[in-house]
Amino acid sequence: VGPRASFLARGRDALDEALVALRSGHSATLPISDFDQLSIRNLLPLLADLKAPELRTLREYESRHKARKTLLAELDVRIEAAVVDLDEA
Fold this sequence. Notes:
The protein is built from four helices and no strands. By secondary structure, the protein is an all-alpha fold. Helix 1 packs parallel to helix 3. It is globular.
């Protein structure tokens, strides 16, 4: 891909962010069913297999709705870990 790599990466990142914004707009498009009804205790195990865009979607949705501080903090930690994993890959 050569010199186009950074251009393609920026495009991919922009698309990811657009999808996060779109999916975080309604609970029906979240990566976890019944997200609003689940307690933090029940949500934590479900976060384990999610990728960074899915975690960002949940974080955006949560920040606009219930804004549970514990869940937001946990999502931040997992998002950062997912980003670090991508950087190391």
